Amino acid sequence: MPVVLRGLAASDRDAWQSLWTDYLTFYQSTVSDAVYDTTFARLLGDDPQDFTCLLACVDDVPVGLTHFLFHRHNWRIDNVCYLQDLYASPHVRGRGVGRALIEGVYAAADAAGSPNVYWLTQQSNLTAQQLYDRIALQTEFIKYQRPAA
Fold first, then answer.
1. Quick check: is 19 in a domain?
2. CA neighbours closer than 13 Å in the CB half-sphere of residue 55
3. SS3 for 141?
4. Which residues does 115 contact at the CB level (< 8 Å), separation at least 6?
5. How many domains is the chain built from?
6. Are 97 and 64 in contact (CB under 8 A)?
7. Angle (CA) 103 137 75, round 5°
8. What pLDDT, on a 0 to 100 scale, did the predictor assign at position 129?
9. 78 in a structural domain
10. pLDDT grade, residue 148 (50/70/90)?
11. SS3 label, residue 65
12. Which CATH number do you get for residue 55?
């Protein structure tokens, strides 16, 4: 099952939204139609401050996605890369899709001169952590977030 990575195209809207909806559902979250519309438009835009999307395809069918962003960091001169979303459809898990997507982000970061790539995951997402532990280093940082008003 060869996995092919490619950038997002305007014609990918339905497949992208289906994959991202499944990802959000996994994390027990939802977004409004306005967020879908705005996020998709930003992913297709040319603002370097916006996220980029890579799709993982098998037989030309999108089966996974990742969203990532380059940003400045006060402790470095070069930008760092934040991998925000990573999703592989359940029927292709364990077949290298997640790894291919992360390696695609690594390659994009290297090409941009931004070798530092980081992401977050839930403590309970043990399946994903099996992959992450093989291709990344777990840090000692704990995330804090302002409570919703």
1. yes
2. 24
3. coil
4. 78, 109
5. 1
6. yes
7. 95
8. 94
9. yes
10. confident
11. strand
12. 3.40.630.30
Residue 140 lies inside a defined structural domain of this protein:
no
Helices (H) and strands (E) counted in the chain, each on its own, are: 4, 5
- Interval 13-57: pLDDT, tens: 999 999 999 999 999 999 999 999 999 999 999 998 899 999 999
Question: What is the distance between the terminal CA atoms of the chain, rounded to a whole angstrom?
Answer: 46
Q: Pairing state of beta strands 80-88 and 117-118?
A: parallel
**Cα 93 from Cα 81, distance rounded (Å):** 24
Range of the domain at 20: 4-135
Report yes or no: 14 and 21 within 8 Å, Cβ to Cβ.
no
> Is residue 73 within 8 Å of residue 116, measured between CB atoms?
yes
> What tokens were used for 127?
């399946």
Return the number of other C-beta atoms located less than 10 Å from residue 133's C-beta.
10
Residue with tokens 């992913």: 43
Pair of tokens at residue 20: 């991202």
Contacts of residue 102, defined as CB under 8 A and 6 or more positions apart, other chains included, come to: 66, 83, 86, 131, 135, 136
Bridge partner residues of 61 (DSSP): 58
| Residues in the chain, overall count | 149
In a domain, 25, yes or no: yes
What pTM, to 2 d.p., does this model score? 0.94
> What is the predicted pLDDT for the residue at 1?
74
